[in-house]
Each structure stands twice: as C-alpha cells, then as structure tokens.
Amino acid sequence: MPYLPLRSLPPRPSQALSTAWIERLADRLAGCTGDVAAERSKVCRETLAELAYPEYAANWETAVEDESVPLGTRLSLAALDPRNVTLEPEYYSDCDDTRFQPVKPLLWLWYSFDRLPIGGQNVDLGVQLRRLLAPYIFKRCGANFKAFQHVEFSFGYNLEVGDDVVVHRHVLLDDRGGIRLGNKVSISDYANIYSHTHSIVEQADVTNALTVLEDGVRVTYHATVLAGVHVNEQGMVGALAVATKDVRPYHVYVGIPAKSVRVKPNAPEPATILRTAENRLARPMPE
Ligand SMILES: CC(C)(COP(=O)(O)OP(=O)(O)OC[C@H]1O[C@@H](n2cnc3c(N)ncnc32)[C@H](O)[C@@H]1OP(=O)(O)O)[C@@H](O)C(=O)NCCC(=O)NCCS
Hints:
Elements: H1 15-30, H2 36-52, H3 60-65, H4 71-78, H5 97-114, H6 123-137, E1 140-141, E2 146-147, E3 152-153, E4 159-161, E5 166-167, E6 172-173, E7 179-181, E8 186-187, E9 192-193, E10 196-198, E11 206-208, E12 211-213, E13 218-219, E14 224-225, E15 230-231, E16 236-237, E17 242-243, E18 251-254, E19 259-263, H7 269-273
Parallel strand pairs: 1-4, 2-5, 3-6, 4-7, 5-8, 6-9, 7-12, 8-13, 9-14, 12-15, 13-16, 14-17, 16-18
Antiparallel strand pairs: 10-11, 18-19
Helix pairs in contact: 2-5, 5-6
Bound molecules: coenzyme A.
C-alpha cells in the first residue's frame, strides 16, 4: 500500500478571524467560574446567536418576547439557549445533573455548530472548536485531540481521552457507563462505542459498564463496540464488525460477532501466540 501521510494546507485568507473567534471563546469559557451552567449557557447562546441569527444577536432577550417577530423565529432564538432544550441523557435516571448541567451548554454548542453553514464540513475551525470544548466536557482530555463533525456523546462527563486521539465523523461515544480511550486511539466514521445495555426482558433494566480502548486501538468504519468490552493495546476492529467480547492485543477482529482473523506483524511474541476464538493460531497479517 502507498504511504500517504496527511498534507499541511496553507492558512485560509480568513485565518485571523478564526483565530480571534476561538481566542475570544476560550477567554469567555475560562471566565465562567460562578454559576458555571448558567454562565456557559449565556456564552453558548451568544456564540450561536452571532453565527445563526446575527440580526438578533444584540437584542436576543427582547426578540424572544417580541410578538411582532414570527413565532417560529422566536422559538428558534429561544433554542439557542441550552436551558430551553432537552438532551436525551437528561431523561436517564442515572444522569448526574450536578455533572451534566455544566457540560450541557458545551454539548449544545458542539452539536449546533456542526449544523450551521460555518460548521458542517469546516475541518480546521471545527477541530479547533472541539479541541477547546473537549477538556471542559470530558472527565479527561489529552493533547492533540481531534474530532470531526457530527460526533455525539451520552453524558460527555464520563469520557476519558488520552493523547493524540482521533474521532472521525458521525461517531457515537455513549459514555453512560464510562468510556476510556488510551493514547493514539482512532475511531473511524460511523462507528459506535457503547457503555450501557438493556435487559432483553425489561427495557428499563439498564446495565452500565466501562468500555476501554487501550493505546493504539483502531475501531474502523461502521464498527460497533458493545458495553464493557476491553479492546486491548493495538487491537483493531474491522469495518462493520460488532465487538461483543474483549479484543486481544495486536489482533484484528472482524465480523458479527467479531472474531480474530489476524495478528499484526509488529505484535510482540505473546500476542502472536494467543489463539483466536476459533481455537486456531491467528495468522500474522502480511506487510
Ligand atoms: C480489518 C481489515 C483491516 C482486515 O484487512 P486485511 O488484513 O487486509 O484482511 P483480509 O482482507 O486479508 O481479510 C482476512 C479475512 O477476513 C475477512 N474480512 C476482512 N475484513 C472483514 C470485515 N470488515 N468483515 C468481515 N470479514 C472481513 C476477509 O474476507 C478474509 O476472509 P477469508 O480469509 O475467508 O478470505 C479490513 O478488512 C478492514 O475492515 N478495514 C477497514 C478500513 C480501515 O483500515 N480503516 C481504518 C481507517 S482509520
């Protein structure tokens, strides 16, 4: 296979605007030290109003009450404030409001930005925004975190992220029972990582279980990792696979349920001698 590292692009003509916008938002978030949920809600609302409804940005409060403004416009304006919307995790009995309410405004800003013309497929600004928001949302966030558009979370506050982690577009990180991502983890487009499950008899019988992706793990396109699964160091979950059980270090698992078909050629000896679920020796993956 050809070696194709990512290219560096020259700065955009409006780079200074992007930088100033991110810096102002960073200052505003750092200044939320009192009633954090309320202060962040105001920052979220004012940030979104400038981007989505600039004609109302300066007079948001009066516009929401103004009966001469079309009803749907008033409703849309009101929804810029996260206190006027509900997010799915708020309905969960195990949602810890003392932890969720302070992160809710930042989740709402994250999701809403992705749905605006300035968000969408805007990689550079989107990555910068999410890199700014992530440490305030997650339990822990390492260096160089990179998330593309339309990533979704459950609580957000139950997610631990190591260094150099990349999360591609349309990924679901259900951190209800906790997700721990090691260093250099990569999660590809449309993958799902779960940490809760329901009884097959009683829907309301929920089991939360920490799901762990160790250092160097890759969960590839459209794959799913179920609650409580431990994907060990350098393990790989192939396209469309469903990992229902732990993934061995350096093994490549595919299918539903996911089974080992390969051991990476760079695996240390102990990983190569582990047997696959079919009780045959896994073949080393060719170079
Ligand atoms: C997991 C993956 C890397 C395996 O690639 P590979 O080592 O070249 O494996 P092979 O193509 O030789 O496949 C080995 C066997 O597993 C099967 N297989 C491979 N990928 C599979 C998948 N996703 N689902 C089901 N079966 C799969 C192959 O058909 C083959 O079966 P066989 O031995 O009966 O012929 C690859 O299939 C995959 O899913 N890639 C996802 C794309 C990717 O790399 N994403 C990362 C982006 S960040």
